[in-house]
Each structure stands twice: as structure tokens, then as C-alpha cells.
From TrEMBL:
Domain of life: Bacteria
Alphabetically ordered keywords of this record: Signal
Protein name: Tetratricopeptide repeat protein
InterPro entries named among the record's database cross-references: TPR-like_helical_dom_sf
Signal peptide residues on this chain, from the entry's feature table: 1-22
Length: 230
């Protein structure tokens, strides 16, 4: 899920409250998540908003899966194609509703794929500002098949935005190792370090920010240096 919008855009977004629900639902064999619903169309929320499907909707789902598998017979590969389409919608077009629809399609095809939960986590964090649920979904994604190299970077970034820098920091430290040529996790690690109270170390880390998407973090970098007195 690499190549995200700058951190400052996230921080400027309006907050939307989501109701907390404690009930757990099995979404794949041996995998359960909290049942969270949102005030949007069913296919624009994770797991189709946990809506009870009509027989007609179930038939439509089966037809969709069959049509996709005619083109790509392997379920994991077919799900991967849908995840990639969702990622393009999310990152390239800022179309979060369409991204959620594609991740739901991937869920129908192969619910064991990490990218589905990763994508859902990004959707609920960005659109609904439900950082608690996003954290849960990121943790599920880490246990599923074929996690993205950017998983820890995205998870840590979300925790940083949620005001949880101490939890974000170890994830971002690992993210720098996972994706050493990506400027975003380096920048976010410097922020997490500053917000954890270590100004000197944050300046040292800021001096090491480099790599792809450097142009997207220049504003964050300037603000950090101002706040830290680098």
C-alpha cells in the first residue's frame, strides 16, 4: 500500500465519529474481527458493512466471483488484482469509496489475503477516522498471507496520526528497514521520536530523511525542524 498522501493532509482532515461495537464476527476461517458499521453503502465499508445479504445479492456475488475466475482462475491472484485496483483508487485517485468496493471484491475472492485487511484499515482510518478499528485491521493484516512491504509503515503512520507515537515508533523503525529507499517512513519516524520527547534524536533522524516521495514530505520536514529547533 506504498505511496501515501502527505502526513499534513491527514492531520488536516475533519474527524468523523464511528460507533464502537464489541461483537466479533468470523470473516475467514480462524479469523475474527470486531463488527463495525458505518453510515455508507454496504460495499463502501469493510466486509460489506456486515450487512445481511439477500438471496439476490448472494447470487450476484457468486456471478461476480465466477466471472473473475474465468479470466484469472487462481483465487489468490484474482484477489491480488482487485487489491491492486483498490490501491490505485485509494492512492492514485483519492477515491476511497471505489477503493473499498475493490477490497470487498478481493474479500469475496480470497479472504486470506493480507492486502484486504490492510486496505480496509486505510479506508476506515482515512474516511471514518476510526483509528482503533484501523489498528485492529492492521494487526490482522500482519498475520495474513502476502503482507505488503509497506504494512508497518502504514500502520505506524496511522498510529502517529492517532496521537500514539510511542506505539508508532517501533513499527516505523522496522518500516525503515523494510523500505529503506522510501522517505515517508523515515519522516514519520522522526515525527514519532519528537512526539515521544526526544528532540535531539528526532533532528538526527530528520537529517537522514531521503528516498522516494521526498517531495511529498518536504513540508513535514520543514515543520519538524521548526518545532524541534534543528
Amino acid at each position: 500500500m506504498k505511496r501515501l498522501i502527505p502526513l499534513l493532509i491527514w492531520l488536516a482532515a475533519a474527524t468523523i465519529s464511528a460507533p464502537a461495537q464489541a461483537q466479533n464476527v468470523e470473516v475467514a476461517p480462524g479469523v475474527s474481527v470486531s463488527r463495525k458499521t458505518y453510515p455508507v453503502s454496504a460495499n463502501e465499508a469493510p466486509f460489506f458493512n456486515f450487512a445481511e445479504k439477500t438471496e439476490g445479492q448472494k447470487v450476484a456475488d457468486r456471478k461476480l466471483v465466477a466471472a473473475v475466475l474465468e479470466r484469472v482462475p487462481d483465487r489468490a491472484r484474482a484477489a491480488g488484482t482487485a487489491i491492486e485496483a483498490g490501491t490505485r483508487a485509494f492512492l492514485g485517485e483519492n477515491d476511497i469509496a471505489t477503493a473499498a468496493k475493490r477490497f470487498n471484491q478481493a474479500y469475496l475472492l480470497d479472504p486470506q489475503q493480507s492486502g484486504i485487511y490492510h486496505g480496509f484499515a486505510m479506508v476506515v482510518a482515512t474516511r471514518f477516522k476510526d483509528f482503533v478499528y484501523a489498528d485492529e485491521l492492521f494487526r490482522v493484516a500482519a498475520r495474513m498471507k502476502s503482507p505488503s512491504p509497506s504494512l508497518r509503515a502504514d500502520h505506524g503512520r496511522m498510529l502517529l496520526i492517532a496521537g500514539r507515537p510511542a506505539e508508532a515508533k517501533p513499527l516505523l523503525e522496522q518500516a525503515v528497514k523494510d523500505t529503506p529507499d522510501w522517505a515517508v517512513p523515515r519522516m514519520n519516524l522522526a515525527w514519532a521520536t519528537l512526539q515521544s520527547g526526544n528532540r535531539e534524536e528526532s533532528c538526527r533522524l530528520a537529517a537522514q530523511v531521503r528516498g522516494e516521495q521526498m517531495e511529498n514530505v518536504e513540508g513535514d520536514l520543514a515543520l519538524l525542524r521548526q518545532k524541534a529547533g534543528c
